């Protein structure tokens, strides 16, 4: 769980540590981190009254005629930034965004996740998540020159990438973010750091902090880190596998030792998975939000493209890790399709919203996929009733635009902006002449 700092702790720490500046963090709708700094003397007032800023310059926030926004810092997210000097250091707090009259702002992704979590709480559930974010290190931001040729779990000789990962883990722990694993991934110069399971709001804050920390440590060492889903042709892309579960007053709501099907899954757990399967094509535009995201979602590179679930089968979109006796609270489902470029607040909101709809609608869990789906023919997939995720952003945004479920979960403001923004991106991409086309056609046509 996140530390339970309060405003008195924050104000005392600022004074005792001589901290002059506090960065107020929030995200735009696409998940890009935004920030402005306030001096230590303004923080107490900010807790009471918030700090006003111009929202019209933030993507997806407000139109020019309704630009005034107010940021209220969340004291529980207070941390010192470890990459800044200790003397006269800099701290940060995440903020909740309101309109001038104090109402929650409908375009604030953190509020949208909070609203979805409240719906879960009203149904008796708390959501916990544990994402696995992959990323690449490159020599700079202008090329894909790798730092190593390592593979999955490889222990490479002591090199810059090993040290970068170590320094990143230490920085995250200084920020109060516990790390479970870190290792080399499948592709050259690809790495993964897994954050320890916690409640969904804390984890969304942690993911935003994690992405910045990875980049800051890389920058300090003269290299570049990217969460681009598919930066290198012919290599595996980067995913964000999201382990998730619901807890109720009795413990893990997904676990049932008396499951007649032998999965050790409760009815709630099965309905939640069925909700993910049903609504995945509609929320794909959120969990995989860029043109490049769909270069990763192709058969042959481990990323799931078929709408299935399984226990041992890693080719399935939803995996249920095997139950271990005595580890009932670890019962969870893993959604393998999202990528690390997603806005974590909106991504967790649509996953949770889809799962809750599965429970509300009493959806039936389809049969488990027990064979390698990547090796099935189109006829075999069709006869098994196995659908596919959208093949590109254009398909994804069409399904998202038509989805009443997504309008309900995200609200009209964000849904409308997202559709407009992604349509513009897709239209720009469609008009772009790629190097592949020039290589393929220029000399023969």
List key phrases describing it.
19% strand; 37% helix; six-stranded mixed beta sheet; Creatine Kinase, Chain A, domain 2; single chain; 445 residues; globular; Ubiquitin-like (UB roll); 12 helices
Characterization of this structure:
The structure is a single chain. This protein has 445 residues and is of the alpha+beta class. It has two domains: 7-100, Glutamine synthetase, N-terminal domain (Ubiquitin-like (UB roll), Roll), CATH 3.10.20; 114-436, Creatine Kinase, Chain A, domain 2 (2-Layer Sandwich). Helix content is 37%, strand content 19%. The chain has twelve helices and 16 strands. The strands form two sheets. Strands 7, 8, 9, 10, 11, 12, 13, 14, 15 and 16 form a ten-stranded mixed sheet that branches. Strands 1, 2, 3, 4, 5 and 6 form a six-stranded mixed sheet that branches. The protein is globular, with a radius of gyration of 22 Å. It starts with 6 loop residues before the first helix and ends with a helix. 43% of the residues are buried.
Which percent range describes the beta-strand content? Answer: 15-25%
Total of helices: 12
Based on the structure given, which CATH architecture of the largest domain is correct?
2-Layer Sandwich
Q: Helical content, roughly?
A: 25-40%
Tally of discrete structural domains: 2
Q: Mind telling me the CATH superfamily name of the largest domain?
A: Glutamine synthetase/guanido kinase, catalytic domain
């Amino acid at each position: 769980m996140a530390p339970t700092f309060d405003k008195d702790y924050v104000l005392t720490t600022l004074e005792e540590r001589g901290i002059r500046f506090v960065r107020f963090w929030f995200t735009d709708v696409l998940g890009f981190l935004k920030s402005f700094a306030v001096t230590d003397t303004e923080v107490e007032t900010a807790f009471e009254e918030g700090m006003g800023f111009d929202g019209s310059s933030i993507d997806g926030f407000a139109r020019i005629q309704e630009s005034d926004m107010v940021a209220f810092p969340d004291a529980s997210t207070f941390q010192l930034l470890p990459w800044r000097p200790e003397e006269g250091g800099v701290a940060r707090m995440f903020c909740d965004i309101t309109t001038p009259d104090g109402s929650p702002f409908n375009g604030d992704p953190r509020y949208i996740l909070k609203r979805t979590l409240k719906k879960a709480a009203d149904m008796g559930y708390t959501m916990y998540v544990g994402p696995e974010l992959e990323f690449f290190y490159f020599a700079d931001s202008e090329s894909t020159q790798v730092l190593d040729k390592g593979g999955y779990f490889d222990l490479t000789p002591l090199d810059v990438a090993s040290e970068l990962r170590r320094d990143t883990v230490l920085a995250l722990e200084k920020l109060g973010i516990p790390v479970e694993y870190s290792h080399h991934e499948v592709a050259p110069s690809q790495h993964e750091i897994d954050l320890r399971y916690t409640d969904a709001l804390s984890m969304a804050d942690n993911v935003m902090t994690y992405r910045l920390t990875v980049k800051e440590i890389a920058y300090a060492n003269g290299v570049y880190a990217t969460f681009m889903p598919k930066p290198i042709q012919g290599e595996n892309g980067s995913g964000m596998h999201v382990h998730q579960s619901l807890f109720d007053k009795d413990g893990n709501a997904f676990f049932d030792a008396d499951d007649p099907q032998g999965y050790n899954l409760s009815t709630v757990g099965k309905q939640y998975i069925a909700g993910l399967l049903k609504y995945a094509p509609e929320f794909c535009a959120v969990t995989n939000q860029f043109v490049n995201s769909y270069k990763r979602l192709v058969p042959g590179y481990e990323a799931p493209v078929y709408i299935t679930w399984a226990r041992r089968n890693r080719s399935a979109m939803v995996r249920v890790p095997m139950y271990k006796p005595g580890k009932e609270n670890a019962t969870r489902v893993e959604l393998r399709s999202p990528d690390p470029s997603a806005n974590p607040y909106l991504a967790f909101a649509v996953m949770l919203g889809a799962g809750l709809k599965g429970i509300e609608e009493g959806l039936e869990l389809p049969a488990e996929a027990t064979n390698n789906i990547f090796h099935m023919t189109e006829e075999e997939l069709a006869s098994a009733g196995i659908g596919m995720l959208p093949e590109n952003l254009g398909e994804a945004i069409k399904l998202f635009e038509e989805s009443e479920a997504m309008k309900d979960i995200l609200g009209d403001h964000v849904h409308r902006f997202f559709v407009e923004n992604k349509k513009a991106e897709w239209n720009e991409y469609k008009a772009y002449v790629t190097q592949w086309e020039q290589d393929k056609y220029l000399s023969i046509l």
